[in-house]
Automatic annotation (TrEMBL):
PROSITE patterns on file: MANNITOL_DHGENASE
Catalytic class of the enzyme: oxidoreductase
Gene, per the UniProt record: mtlD
Protein's recorded name: Mannitol-1-phosphate 5-dehydrogenase
EC number: 1.1.1.17
UniProt domain Mannitol dehydrogenase C-terminal: residue ranges: 203-381
Keywords annotated in UniProt: NAD, Oxidoreductase
Source superkingdom: Bacteria
Family: Belongs to the mannitol dehydrogenase family.
Length: 387
C-alpha cells in the first residue's frame, strides 16, 4: 500500500506518517521544506520520541519524500498510484495543494479507476470536505464525475500534541503519548482504509466538536491568557492558578454544550476534560504559546474553538459563557508581531474596534450579547495587562 502525505511537519511526521507506516503503507511525504525533503530522501527513516514518564523511541521506516514545488510531476505520479492521500499542512494551505492533487487524480483516471481515499488532518470542521471543494475546481468535467465514483473524501478529527522543536536531528520529532484519530466512514469507497490505531465512526460531528471544543478551546485559553501574562510555554501558563481556573471554566461551558447537543455522558466528559488538562501540563513537553496561539483570525472564526461553543452556549442556556468570553477577549489582545494574522487583527481592531473585528471575523451580529460581554472583558484585560 502507498500513502502520499502532504506536510512533513510536526503532526505529519509525529503522528500521521508514523501511524501509516506502522499500518504497512509506504509513506511518501510531500513538502516544500527543502531540508526536510532531502533528509527524508537520504535517510528513508526518522525517529519519533514519545514524551511520557519514560522517553520511548520509535523508528518510522520505509519513507520517502518529494518537493511539491520542484518535483511536481513525481507528486502527480505518486498520487496516480496511491491508495491513500493525507494532509497536515494547515487549513490555509489546502487551496495551495489542491491543484497538484487534482492533477494527480486526472493522471490516475487515465491509467486506472481504483478506489482512493483522501483525508485532510487539519484542526477544522469539515477539513476534507473543504479540500474536496478546492480540488474539484481544478478538475475537468470527466474528472469530476470520476471523483464521485472512485475517490472517498473522509473528514476526520486528529488529536496529538506535537510542539515546535529544534532537535540535533532535524527529522526527529517529540510527541505526547496520547493520540486519537477519528475518521468518518460516510464517504468511503469500498472498504475503509486500513489504519492501525484509527477510530472509524459513522458520524464525525460529535467527535470533531468534542476535540475542537475541548482540546483546542482549552489550549487556546491557556495560550492567549498566558501570552498576556508573558509566559512562554503552555506548561508555564497552566501553573498559574488564575489561568487554570479560566481554562476549566471555559471547558465546563463548552462541555455543557457538548453533553446537551451530542449526548456525551456527563461523567465521561468530565474525565475527558481532566485528561485534556493533564496533557497541557505534561512536564516532558515544552509547547510554545505562540505556536498554540498562531493564526488568531482563523481561531476567531464562527466555526472554530472559541466563538462556536460560546454562541452555542448562549443559544442553549441563554447565558453568556464567562470563561469562553475571556478566551475571545485575550485572543483579541494577541499582538505577536511575528504572526501575520495577529498583525492584521490588531489593524482591524485599530480601524473598526473590537466590535468590528467580531462582526468581520467571528460572524457575530453587533447586537449579540457576546459582543457586549467580550468588549467589556477586553477593556478590563487591556487595562490590566497594558505593557
Ligand atoms: N502540531 C500539532 O500538535 C497538531 C497539528 N494539527 C494540525 O495539523 C496541521 C499541521 O500542523 P503542524 O504539523 O503543527 O504544522 P507544521 O508547520 O509543523 O507542518 C506543516 C508542514 O506543511 C508544509 N507545507 C507548507 N506548505 C506546503 C505545500 N504547499 N505543500 C506541501 N507541504 C507544505 C510545511 O513546510 C510544514 O512542514 C494544522 O492544520 C494543525 O492544526 C492537528 C493536530 C495536532
Ligand atoms: O494547530 P492549530 O489549529 O493552529 O492550533 C494549535 C492547536 O492544535 C494542536 O496543535 C493540536 O491539536 C494543539 O496543540 C493546539 O490546540
Amino acid at each position: 500500500m502507498r500513502a502520499v502525505h502532504f506536510g512533513a511537519g510536526n503532526i505529519g511526521r509525529g503522528f500521521i506518517g508514523s501511524l501509516l507506516a506502522a499500518s504497512g503503507y509506504d509513506v511518501v511525504f510531500v513538502d516544500v521544506n527543502e531540508q526536510i525533503v532531502r533528509l527524508l530522501k537520504e535517510q528513508g527513516e526518522y525517529r519519533v520520541i514519545i514524551a511520557g514518564e519514560r522517553q520511548e523511541e520509535q523508528w518510522v521506516r520505509g519513507v520517502s519524500a518529494l518537493n511539491s514545488q520542484t518535483e511536481r510531476d513525481d507528486v502527480i505520479e505518486a498520487i496516480a498510484s496511491a491508495d491513500l492521500v493525507t494532509t497536515a499542512v494547515g487549513p490555509h494551505i489546502l487551496p495551495v495543494i489542491a491543484p497538484v492533487i487534482a492533477a494527480g487524480l486526472e493522471r490516475r483516471f487515465t491509467v486506472h479507476q481504483k478506489p482512493l481515499h483522501v483525508i485532510a488532518c487539519e484542526n477544522m470542521i469539515g477539513g476534507t470536505e473543504t479540500l474536496k471543494q478546492h480540488v474539484v475546481t481544478h478538475l475537468s468535467e470527466a474528472g469530476r464525475q470520476l471523483v464521485e465514483e472512485c475517490v472517498g473524501f473522509l473528514n476526520c478529527a486528529v488529536d496529538r500534541i506535537v510542539p515546535n522543536q529544534t532537535n540535533d536531528d532535524p527529522l526527529a520529532v517529540t510527541v505526547e503519548p496520547f493520540f486519537e484519530w477519528a475518521i468518518e466512514t460516510k464517504n468511503t469507497i469500498g472498504a475503509v482504509p486500513p489504519i492501525q490505531g484509527a477510530h472509524f465512526v459513522a458520524d464525525l460531528g460529535p467527535y470533531i466538536e468534542r476535540k475542537l471544543f475541548t482540546v483546542n478551546t482549552g489550549h487556546a485559553l491557556a495560550a492567549y491568557l498566558g501570552y498576556q501574562k508573558q509566559y512562554r510555554t503552555v506548561q508555564e501558563a497552566m501553573k498559574d492558578s488564575g489561568i487554570r481556573e479560566s481554562v476549566e471554566q471555559a471547558l465546563r461551558e463548552s462541555g455543557a454544550v457538548l453533553v446537551k447537543k451530542h449526548g456525551w455522558d456527563e461523567q465521561e466528559h468530565r474525565s475527558y476534560i481532566e485528561t485534556t488538562i493533564g496533557r497541557f501540563t505534561n512536564p516532558s513537553l515544552s509547547d510554545d504559546i505562540v505556536r498554540v496561539a498562531r493564526s488568531p483570525i482563523r481561531k476567531l472564526g464562527p466555526n472554530d474553538r472559541l466563538v462556536a461553543p460560546a454562541v452555542q452556549y448562549y443559544t442553549l442556556f441563554e447565558r453568556v459563557p464567562s470563561g469562553l468570553v475571556k478566551g475571545i477577549a485575550a485572543l483579541l489582545l494577541f499582538d505577536e508581531t511575528g504572526d501575520a494574522e495577529a498583525t492584521a487583527l490588531q489593524k482591524t481592531i485599530e480601524q473598526s474596534g473590537v466590535e468590528g473585528a467580531l462582526v468581520q471575523y467571528a460572524g457575530l451580529d453587533n447586537s449579540h450579547p457576546l459582543v457586549v460581554a467580550v468588549k467589556e472583558e477586553y477593556a478590563q484585560m487591556k487595562q490590566m495587562y497594558s505593557r
